[in-house]
Amino acid sequence: MIDRETIRMFRDIGRDIFVAGLTSSHGGNMSVRAGDRILITRRGSMLGQLTDDDVVETSLEPGAADDRCSREIVVHRAIYSATDAGAIVHAHPVHTIARSFAAEAIVPADSEGLYVLGEVPVVSAASTIASPEAAAVLAAALQTAPVAVLRTHGPFAKGATLEEAFMHVSVLEASAVILDLLGR
Q1: Greatest CA span in the chain, whole angstroms?
Q2: Is the pTM for the entire model greater than 0.90?
Q3: CB of 175 within 8 A of CB of 168?
Q4: What is the CA angle 91-3-12, rounded to 5?
Q5: What is the phi/psi pair of residue 57, to 5°?
Q6: What is the extent of the structural domain holding 101?
Q7: Which of 11-25, 60-74, 79-93, 152-166 has the lowest mean pLDDT?
């Protein structure tokens, strides 16, 4: 059974992601690593309105609960296997995604973006949703960066906590908006 504090954390961060406009009603997903387990949002859940049933516990290895997990479980597992991430946030912020169509990296012009993120890699995969290829390129990029953008699909951010991973996505989107306003 998943404890109340963990459910509250998922609800609060999920709501903040949605209210900040970083994803559509049913887009995005989040997870935390708990030893050899992963707690991840349920397939098709609404991040802005998570319920107790919307957080699924599964293993670091494929298992029976996977059909309830976000389709991106393969990506989350790869990132946990390749990095020290304690949590992962994936969202669909429109300015970041728009920049990913043509950029090889997103380089913030603002001080906060440069300080928190530095240069953000944009990676490509032939199949962008829940594919082993996407998992591999994102896991490799997140070995050295706090956030990476999967071209045309959106950012995956790691952090010690959900709050830190959320911050990386939020700062990235703010930097993308600033770049747009500057016409760069």
Answers
A1: 49
A2: yes
A3: no
A4: 35
A5: -100, 130
A6: 4-182
A7: 60-74
